[in-house]
């Protein structure tokens, strides 16, 4: 017998999703403030990241930011005195929210924003996670993308 009764302990479906932790606009995670040290977040969770897994092994193949963090945030990290001399500090932490994506045989197309806030579609090499192209779009995407074949 469980020590505490939980609304999640039921064999019946309730039609309610319990995700009180998910309070960020546009997606899960985020929203809660983090502890900081001289303005730097001590913990940076997976919000703002796109992760590719090798489905044969379960290993992580690559991790990239979801879009580009605002330039002022990147500059703050790059120029922070506590991080001077620390190797491999990633200043682009990405953006929170949901990235709409569509996969082709070689590329992953991902919605996001540039450092200046411009909505974008980024083309990412599926094997390496390298951004190989980008296209400005008129507004932030809200729904999934589709791919279509024309004449073949």
Question: Which features would summarize this protein structure in a list?
Answer:
152 residues; mainly beta; Thrombin, subunit H; two-stranded antiparallel ribbon; 8 strands
Give a written overview of the molecule.
There is one protein chain. The chain has 152 residues and is mainly beta. It has a domain of 94 residues: Beta Barrel (Thrombin, subunit H). Helices cover 5% and strands 25% of the residues. It contains 1 helix and 8 strands. Strand 1 and strand 2 form a beta hairpin. The termini are far apart.
User: Beta-strand level of the residues, as a percent range?
Assistant: 25-35%
Mean pLDDT over the residues? 81
What's the CATH topology name of the domain at 43-136? Answer: Thrombin, subunit H
Please give the largest β-sheet.
Answer: 4 strands, antiparallel
Strand order of the largest sheet: 5-6-7-8
Number of helices: 1
Q: What value does the Rg take, in angstroms?
A: 19 Å
Apparent shape: globular
